[in-house]
């Protein structure tokens, strides 16, 4: 493997990368003075991948929650399961499934090399049986119920279902009790072979380890299987939401709201610059230092949980405002009025500068954390960006870039999701 | 090993100087006895975090923090044994990353000291609008515990189990107590905290600890100290077994079981109980994970946690309400297996390795959290001593520690009318 080194002098950090003949992208960030290592092995297969092209070239629909189910089951093996194998090295292992990715990880300061071998090995060796699949339905059934009782989770999915008509971002990552009942071992094998293909995957290792050692272990443990890259299909959605208002009663102490503005995207993915410009914009206008935040706080309309953030991925992008309030409609209207006011009057340059500085500071701080860095590097690469790009792009963002991101927030594309206490 | 300095009577600074990280952190932990003043103390912490003499308003202060590259001020309240610990913290990026050469670290050390010593007070008042806003937010902090049913069940287990001990109080005070706090109470809480709290300043980062210490030495120099004695009740055995149930319209029940660990102080048998707790319900190799979750498919999570400062072990699990008896019986069964020594030898190695991993801290936040939690301990325990202590634990000690566990209280948060589709 030919390796490439990218350095950031100011931070005193470097990343060594390589592409394995099988197509796997590998990134290593060695951290001096760190005893621990965090490794992340991820595949571009998430809950939004709800269909796949079969041998006959036809699209087959996948039951909701299959990526997540597969994540749970990949730990299984004919012999010792992955948890049992990691127990022998002391590594703490875990996995997660998001809208766009499934990732397997460990943190270890003991026998790191052995742990890395286990990670690469177990992800390459699926073992599914009818019995183990059935057992997992009980466990995931409880996981689904746990999420159903989390108001923050419910309010977000209710909003996504209101905003999106067709895009699978509207479905729950873990699926439903009914959808996971349709999953069997055959299906898991079929999807595993489709999505866990090395050209669709990234391995990121951050911490106290020599990059050469990582490449050596990959060469030894990775199957050199040629694989064809897979791509997602971009279906442009009507920007008008499915519903403008949704509410649900749950066992909560107070009303909560989540207001979303769907973006009429022309390309499947935002650029990193667009993402960061939105982050700066939302903090400048609605963050804890803003006049808006102060005004609503003084009027007792919001609490410290008030938040404004960008939510985007392949084929979807929206801006979300959320918090606890007695008056969701009133707060929503105030957010909309503020957006219109700033569209006319422009973003305050001082607020812009403060928020940009703050974002830079938070990016610098992220380099402390081996887990944050592994996720960041992997995410940047899946999005076609390079390590350290977030710092470079952040420094380049202008007031004009931020104004541009304000223009895409449109009242007619908004929807409001409300959770209210059960009577 | 961290450096320890005495600042004043029962005030010390614990510092770890390293340039391994990009940021630094200072946390001031102030321990006072947990009592009927809890609500006034809690309001005090949030008022101190809100403004100070130089930045007398919430928005001005936050704008200043933004200019300092998003330095962040934190406020929090914890229970450590029967003490209420009031925490104020700041974290900030190192000077070497400043874009125009200013000294972030000096500004931040000064700022956190100012929060403490020079709050925005006129005529013994923090300002009635500030107090009312913080009161509204604090009431909501307490009320919103209901929104997270796992957290709610945990808090209710503790308040029931320790109803006769200070540890059973809410760390923020109750809604009624918060509503009854007057301005004079908050002012007194401020004076009282500076004079009587047992205090630890924990600093981790690249800055010179001497410099940080001098800022606090100056601040405390005019204050006459009269440190409080803080005692924690350690109930060796559970009292009369209690089971409490509350039902809500939810999809999943939460089962929380409280045990007394049989310890008499934080240090008492700490390493053996830590390992025993971990074998019981710590990692993915633990008895509860491998049996309740993996073998029996009864739960997504079933874990145990040890509170050394109070000698309590808590089991938490999200389950079908109708399976409460099955899960409880299995929890007891797994405990009995440890008492009988079943698999203890083989799990001991796994647990030690995993605990070693968990006490190898890779971020400044983890290090500050570890040391600041020791505010009430006379001798600081560093992570290596913890790891070495754990390493020396034998299977027999684990078995003995398990035998000392006694069940005290069960809190069952059940779903109204049973599960939807069972």
Notable characteristics:
heterodimer, A: 423 residues, alpha+beta, 7-stranded mixed sheet, B: 422 residues, 6-stranded mixed sheet, 15 helices
Which residues of chain A form runs of ≥5 with pLDDT under 50?
A: none
Estimated share of beta-strand residues of chain B:
15-25%
Q: Stretches of chain B where pLDDT falls below 50 for ≥5 residues?
A: none
Share of helix among residues of chain B? Answer: 40-55%
Tell me what the structure shows:
- The complex is a heterodimer of chains A (423) and B (422).
- With 423 residues, chain A is of the alpha+beta class.
- In chain A, α9 (272-286) crosses α15 (399-407) and α12 runs antiparallel to α14 (389-396).
- The termini of chain A are far apart.
- Chain A has a seven-stranded mixed sheet, sandwiched between helices. Chain A has a five-stranded mixed sheet with strand order 10-14-11-13-12, with helices on both faces. Chain A has a two-stranded antiparallel ribbon with strand order 5-6.
- Helix content of chain A is 41%, strand content 21%.
- In chain A, a hairpin with a 5-residue loop joins β2 and β3 (25-30).
- Chain B is of the alpha+beta class and 422 residues long.
- In chain B, strands 1-2-6-3-5-4 form a six-stranded mixed sheet, with helices on both faces. Chain B has a five-stranded mixed sheet with strand order 7-11-8-10-9, with helices on both faces.
- The longest helix of chain B has 16 residues, at 128-143.
- Chain B starts with a strand and ends in a 7-residue tail after the last strand.
């Amino acid at each position: 493997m030919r390796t490439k080194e990218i350095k950031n002098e100011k931070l005193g950090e470097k990343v060594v990368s390589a592409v394995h003949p099988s197509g796997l992208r590998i990134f290593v960030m060695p951290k001096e003075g760190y005893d621990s290592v965090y490794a992340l092995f991820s595949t571009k297969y998430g809950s939004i991948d709800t269909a796949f092209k079969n041998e006959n070239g036809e699209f087959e629909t996948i039951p909701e929650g299959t990526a997540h189910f597969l994540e749970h089951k990949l730990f299984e093996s004919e012999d010792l399961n992955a948890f049992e194998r990691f127990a022998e090295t002391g590594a703490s292992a875990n996995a997660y499934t998001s809208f766009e990715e499934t990732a397997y990880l460990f943190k270890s300061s003991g026998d790191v090399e052995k742990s890395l071998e286990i990670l690469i090995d177990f992800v390459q060796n699926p073992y599914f049986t009818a019995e183990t699949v059935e057992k997992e339905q009980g466990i995931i059934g409880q996981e689904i119920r746990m999420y159903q009782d989390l108001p923050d989770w419910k309010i977000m999915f209710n909003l996504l279902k209101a905003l999106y008509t067709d895009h699978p971002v509207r479905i729950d990552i873990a699926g439903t009790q009914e959808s996971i009942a349709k999953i069997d071992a055959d299906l898991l094998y079929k999807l595993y072979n489709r999505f866990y293909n090395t050209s669709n995957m990234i391995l990121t290792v951050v911490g106290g380890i020599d990059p050469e050692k990582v490449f050596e272990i990959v060469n030894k443990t990775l199957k050199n299987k040629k694989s064809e890259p897979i791509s997602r299909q971009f279906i442009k959605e009507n920007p008008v939401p499915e519903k403008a208002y949704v509410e649900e009663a749950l066992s909560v102490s107070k009303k909560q709201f989540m207001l979303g503005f769907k973006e009429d995207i022309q390309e499947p993915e935002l650029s990193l610059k667009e993402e960061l410009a939105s982050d700066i914009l939302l903090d400048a206008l609605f963050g804890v230092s803003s006049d808006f935040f102060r005004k609503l706080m003084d009027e007792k309309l919001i609490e410290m949980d008030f938040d404004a953030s960008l939510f985007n991925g392949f084929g979807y992008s929206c801006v979300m405002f959320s918090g606890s309030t007695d008056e969701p409609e009133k707060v929503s209207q105030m957010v909309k009025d503020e957006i219109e006011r700033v569209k006319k009057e422009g973003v305050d340059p001082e607020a812009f500068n403060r928020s940009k500085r703050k974002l830079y500071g938070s990016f610098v701080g992220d380099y402390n954390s081996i887990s944050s860095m592994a996720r960041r590097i992997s995410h940047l690469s899946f999005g076609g960006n390079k390590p350290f790009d977030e710092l470079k792009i952040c420094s380049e963002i202008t007031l004009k870039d931020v104004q541009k991101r304000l223009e895409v927030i449109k009242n007619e594309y908004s929807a409001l999701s409300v959770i209210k206490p059960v009577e | 090993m961290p450096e320890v300095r005495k600042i004043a009577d029962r005030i010390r600074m614990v510092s770890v100087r390293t340039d391994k990280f990009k940021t630094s952190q200072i946390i001031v932990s102030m321990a006072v006895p947990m009592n009927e003043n809890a609500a006034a103390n809690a309001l005090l912490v949030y008022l101190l975090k809100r403004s100070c003499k130089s930045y007398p308003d919430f928005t001005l202060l936050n704008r200043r923090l933004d200019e300092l590259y998003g330095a962040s001020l934190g406020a929090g309240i914890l229970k450590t044994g029967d003490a209420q610990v009031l925490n104020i913290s700041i974290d900030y990026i190192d000077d070497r990353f400043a874009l125009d050469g200013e000294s972030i670290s000096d500004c931040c050390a000064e700022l956190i000291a100012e929060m403490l010593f020079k709050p925005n007070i006129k005529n013994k008042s923090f300002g009635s609008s500030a107090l009312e806003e913080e009161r509204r937010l604090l009431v909501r902090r307490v009320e919103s515990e209901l929104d997270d049913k796992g957290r709610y069940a945990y808090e209710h287990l503790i308040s029931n189990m320790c109803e006769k001990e200070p540890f059973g109080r809410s760390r923020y005070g109750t809604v009624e107590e918060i509503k009854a706090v007057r301005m004079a109470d908050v002012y007194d809480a401020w004076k009282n905290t500076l004079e009587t709290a047992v205090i630890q300043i924990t600093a981790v980062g690249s800055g010179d600890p001497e410099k940080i210490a001098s800022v606090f030495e100056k601040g405390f120099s005019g204050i006459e100290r009269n440190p409080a004695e803080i005692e924690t009740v350690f109930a060796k055995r559970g009292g009369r077994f209690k089971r409490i149930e509350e039902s809500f319209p939810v999809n999943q029940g939460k089962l929380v079981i409280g045990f007394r660990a049989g310890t008499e102080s934080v240090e008492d048998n700490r390493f053996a109980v830590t390992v025993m707790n971990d074998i019981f319900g710590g990692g993915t190799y633990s008895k509860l994970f491998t049996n309740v979750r993996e073998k029996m498919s009864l739960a997504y999570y079933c874990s145990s946690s040890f509170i050394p400062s109070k000698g309590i072990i808590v089991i938490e699990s999200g389950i079908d309400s109708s399976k409460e008896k099955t899960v409880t019986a299995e929890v007891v069964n797994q405990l009995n297996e440890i008492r009988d020594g079943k698999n203890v030898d083989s799990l001991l190695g796994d647990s030690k390795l995993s605990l070693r991993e968990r006490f190898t801290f890779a971020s400044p936040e983890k290090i500050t959290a570890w040391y600041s939690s020791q505010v009430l301990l006379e001798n600081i325990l560093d992570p290596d001593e913890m790891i070495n202590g754990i390493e020396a634990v034998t299977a027999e000690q684990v078995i003995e520690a398990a035998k000392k566990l006694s069940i005290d209280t069960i809190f069952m948060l059940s779903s109204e009318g049973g599960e939807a589709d069972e």
